[in-house]
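May I ask for an example protein's residues together with how it folds?

___
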Amino acid sequence: MEVRDFLAGRHKLIVRLKSGKSLRGYLKSQSIPRGKLQVTTLEGQDITVDIEKLKGVFFVRDFQGNKSYFETKLLEEDPEREGLRVRVRFEDNETMEGVTENSLEVLQGPGFFFWPADPSANNLLIYVVKSSLIGFKIIGVKG
C-alpha cells in the first residue's frame, strides 16, 4: 500500500512529542502539511501542533498496543516493499529500521514516511520528523 492510499483511510495515531508527551487521536486531513499537524483527539477536540515539536506521528493498530509483544526493530528479512532500507535514531536513542520511499521528500521535507521493520507490531506507518533524529543511515535499496 502506498502512503497516499494509507492516508485516505481514518487511522488511529499516536503523536509523540519531543518533550516525551503524546496524544492519541486521528489525522484531521489526509496529509501531513509541512508546518502544522492537525489532530482530532479521542475526546473530539481539534488540536494543531507545530511539526518541529514532534518526534513523530505513529499510525497504530490500536491505542493500547500489546504490552507482551516484543517488537522487532531491525530488518531481519528484506521486505517486498520497494524503497530505501534505512536505520533511524531519535534524540531519545530509540533506534529502528524500516523502509522509506526513494524520493526527494526524504531530503527536502521536514519529515518522511517510514514503514517499520516488524509487520506484526502495533506501528503500521510512522511519519518521522527529521529534526528529532540524531542518526540516519541508508542500509540498502530495492527497486
In short: The chain has one domain: 3-142.
